[in-house]
Amino acid sequence: MFTNCGVEFPALPHLGQWGVQNSQSRFFTSAQTDWNGVWKDMMARRKGVAPDCATLWDDQKHARHYWNTIQQLGQSYTHRILSGIALAPKSRVLDIGAGPGTLAIPLSKSVCRVIAVEPSPGMMAVLKENISRGNSSNITCIQERWEEVDVDSDLSAPFNVVIAAFSLDMPDIRKAIEKMIRLCHGYVYLYWFVGIPTWTAYYTALWPTIHGTRYQPSPKAEVLIGVLMEMGIHPAVEFTPVVFPIKFHSLDEAVEEVSPEFYVQTDPQRETLTRFLERILVREGDCLVLSHFYIAVKASWKTTAFP
Predict the structure, then answer these.
(1) Measured between alpha carbons, how far is residue 51 from residues 21, 54, 87 in Å?
(2) How far is CA 94 from CA 63, 70, 147, in A?
(3) Domain-by-domain residue ranges, the chain?
(4) SS3 of residue 66 by DSSP
(5) Can you give the pLDDT at residue 21?
(6) Secondary structure class of 294 (helix, strand, coil)
(7) Pick the CATH number of 27-197+216-244+294-302 from 3.30.365.10, 3.30.160.340, 3.40.50.300, 3.40.50.150
(8) Which of 8, 76, 136, 142 falls 20 to 30 Å from 24 in CA-CA distance?
(9) Model confidence over 131-149: pLDDT tens digits?
(10) Strand 236-243 with 184-194, pairing
């Protein structure tokens, strides 16, 4: 059942000063019929306005900071994501948008083979470091965007499980899902965001000041579910609230790490971001914390499309 969800977090009182009156997350439905058209239009409007999700992580230092954040969250974070996934020792898993190995590394300990598709050179470098450090020899890496992967030459199907976890910033989501189904004889699991995650509220608040234009958000779960229904897929849907605090040792480090996500390129833009972060960062011990909260949706279904 789709529900409305909201949360209070420490930075909320300050967002109104930057043009955001309500950052609470909501799931809604509407009478739109061409859901994939909605998805493609929203993604097209992001082009040249917001950073591309893959190139955002080109820098290894930025990608490594993300991995460190995942490590700080502990095993409970990945356990919540992987809970309920149909896995067996002989399973072959395709992890699309694998990042630094958030799921690929723990999955490799309980399945036969993991194929990790990740386009970002920064994330791929950290992923390979983690594979080497953990001696995860059953992970194979493919550095390509999912839409550019040749399923016949790059992959050896079928896969028992296909996962795309928070990596759905793709221009044509229906085509991307059809590609996943083509390779799968088992279960597909898609994870995405519901409503307005706090970082979208941050972008929306600050984008006009930094860039002189409105921020263009990516389509969220309501559009994804609409596309699946259009395809005749009626997925099992689960919602999970996630608290995702990001820690920094100083304001300078926070500005450096967050700047790529706000597409900061000039000194005045950096100064604006610095003033914004001064207002919303919360001191916890010797760290400054950027509060993040989102509602995650897991949409899953069984497919027997592979011949």
Answers:
(1) 24, 9, 35
(2) 21, 21, 14
(3) 27-197+216-244+294-302
(4) helix
(5) 37
(6) strand
(7) 3.40.50.150
(8) 76
(9) 999 889 999 999 999 999 9
(10) unpaired
Residue 121 burial (C-beta neighbours within 10 Å; 0-12, 13-18, 19+): middle
User: 97: which DSSP letter?
Assistant: T
Binned at pLDDT 50, 70 and 90, residue 49 comes out as confident
Contact 98/118 with Cβ under 8 angstroms? yes
DSSP 121-162: HHHHHHHHHHHHHHT-TTEEEE-S-GGG--TTTT----EEEE
Q: What is the largest CA-CA distance in the chain?
A: 57
- Tell if the pTM clears 0.90, that is, is over it: no
Amino acid type, 135:
N
Mean pLDDT, rounded, for 209-224: 95
What is the distance of C-alpha 268 from the center of its chain?
Answer: 29
